[in-house]
Design a protein that fits this description.
It is found in: Cytoplasm. Monomer. The chain has about 425 residues and is α/β, with parallel strands linked by helices. The protein has helices at about 20-30, 45-55, 90-100, 125-130, 165-180, 195-200, 235-245, 265-270, 315-320, 345-355, 385-395, 415-420; strands at about 10-15, 35-40, 60-65, 70-75, 85, 110, 135, 145-150, 160, 180-185, 210, 215-220, 225-230, 250-255, 275-280, 285-295, 300, 325-330, 355-360, 365-370, 375-380, 400-405. The protein has 2 domains: about 10-15 and about 230-420, Enolpyruvate transferase domain (UDP-n-acetylglucosamine1-carboxyvinyl-transferase, Chain); about 20-230, Alpha-beta prism (UDP-n-acetylglucosamine1-carboxyvinyl-transferase, Chain), CATH 3.65.10.10. The longest helix has 13 residues, at about 20-30. The structure holds shikimate-3-phosphate and phosphoenolpyruvate.
Length: about 425
């Protein structure tokens, strides 16, 4: 695909589609609750539509009238195995959370996904779930999908210190803990997105969080709710970057989810000297409006506990750093190597192909700025976030075309990305 290049003056207001993490969870919580769950602003992108299909296959009645989605809960015990494998496509969140949901179901399931999913590590979820009494194994004794999972209706609780900072692992264990008998204690390596904890409370469950320590006693029965999904800050991040970098821009993004566990990019942009303003803050819904203006950026150091708060935004933060004055160092981000692709390698290879000066490290990147970007051929590596970041990079190129291969990957989280961006030209 030929990307839009040589852009000036982005102006306008837009809203981004619903949050991916909350959309997945809204289907899952709706399914395992008693009663009806109504979901507004559900993300209609490949990953979340895939989750919806899987729960239909598990026997959960789900209606989509094009506006709202209605899930009729069957409870954990009401899930039934389909004849065929459950295919999560490209979605790590789906496969890992699903393992926790199914861990207490006394049936055998096969969970599989695309080429990328078949390379992503699953021991992080399988080992603690097996300790609780489930039986999960990967392909040919490995930790990779297809996964065979046999659940256990008498799961034990677990006391577990997470070896990685991962909301997916934490959430899988919380879904299993809700079905076990007794108190589970989960201690995080670093605080990660807390949508699962928030939704356990919203759906009438009990959970105690004290810093990095989470306590939950099972079994618990949840009750269906109305979920209003805010816009996804991880999608807004591409417009934040575009507005900061393109001269003479003022862009407003409305209804963006601003959970503290997700808003690290706002802190980083401000620390780099970027002009980003929050208004219309809705504390109950944890959302607000962002207004971003073109800014002169400076390089900074990014590492430690902020990393999980911006993990999916690092590709676009790396792009910002290529245009900032001085050096930016990103560390403690080794988890990037096990995302849809190795994002440290992909960002380094593709932005350097356009003229950036990035050195990959074991746990991040060192980026020298500012560098002018030039025309070239790049690839998304089949990773939606790399594809969208490269389109924002191309907006800065003025000496010729930028061609992107595997551009269709953006439909994983944001099918209308290119059209929405065009409304700002
Ligand atoms: O729980 C979630 O919804 C997610 C958690 C993160 O993954 P990890 O838990 O693997 O860090 C994130 O990268 C992913 O996009 C969504
Ligand atoms: C890492 C991501 O998603 P997942 O792990 O669900 O594939 C992402 O959306 O950036």
């Amino acid at each position: 695909m030929k990307l839009t290049t040589n852009c000036s003056g982005l102006n306008g207001s837009l809203s981004v589609p619903g949050d991916k993490s909350i959309s997945h969870r809204s289907i899952m919580f709706g399914a395992v609750s008693q009663g009806t769950t109504t979901i507004h602003n559900f993300l209609r992108a490949d990953d979340c539509l895939g989750t919806m299909e899987i729960f239909k296959q598990l026997g959960v009645p789900i209606e989509d009238d094009g506006e709202t989605i209605t899930v009729t809960g069957v409870g954990f015990a009401g899930l039934t195995p389909p004849e065929t494998a459950l295919d999560v496509g490209n979605s790590g969140t789906t496969i890992r959370l699903l393992m926790g949901v199914l861990a207490g179901s006394p049936h055998t399931y096969t969970l599989t996904g695309d080429e990328s999913i078949q390379k992503r590590p699953m021991n992080r979820v399988m080992l603690p779930l097996n300790e609780m009494g489930a039986a999960c194994s990967g392909k040919d004794g490995s930790e990779f999908p297809p996964i065979t999972l046999t659940g256990n209706s008498a799961l034990s609780p677990i006391s577990y210190q997470l070896p990685v900072a991962s909301a997916q692992v934490k959430s899988a264990l919380l879904f299993a803990a809700l079905q076990s008998t007794g108190e589970s204690v989960i201690i995080e390596k670093a605080p990660t997105r807390d949508h699962t904890e928030e939704m356990i409370r919203q759906f009438g469950g009990r959970i105690a969080v004290d810093g990095k320590e989470i306590r939950l006693s099972g079994p618990q029965q949840l009750t269906g709710q109305t979920v209003i999904v805010p816009g996804d800050i991880s999608s807004a991040a591409f417009f934040i970057a575009a507005a900061l970098l393109i001269p003479d821009s003022v862009v407003t993004v409305t209804n963006v989810g601003l959970s503290h566990s997700r808003s690290g990019i706002i802190d980083v942009v401000r620390q780099m000297g970027g002009d980003i303003e929050i208004s219309d803050q809705d504390d109950k819904n944890q959302s607000g409006t962002l207004t971003i203006r073109t800014s002169q950026l400076n390089g900074i150091e990014i590492g430690g506990d902020i990393i999980p708060r911006l993990i999916d935004e690092i590709p676009v933060i790396a792009l910002l750093a290529t245009q900032a004055k001085g050096r930016t160092v990103i560390r403690d981000a080794e988890e990037l190597k096990v995302k849809e692709t190795d994002r440290i390698a992909a960002v380094t290879e593709e932005l350097n192909a356009l003229g950036a000066r990035i050195t990959a490290t074991d746990d991040g990147m060192i980026i020298e700025g500012a560098t002018a970007l030039h025309s070239g051929r790049v690839s998304s590596h089949g990773d939606h976030r790399i594809g969208m970041m490269l389109q924002i990079a191309a907006l800065l190129v003025s000496d010729g075309p930028v061609a992107l291969s595997k551009a269709e990957a953006v439909s994983v989280s944001y099918p209308d990305f290119f059209q929405d961006l065009a409304t700002l030209f």
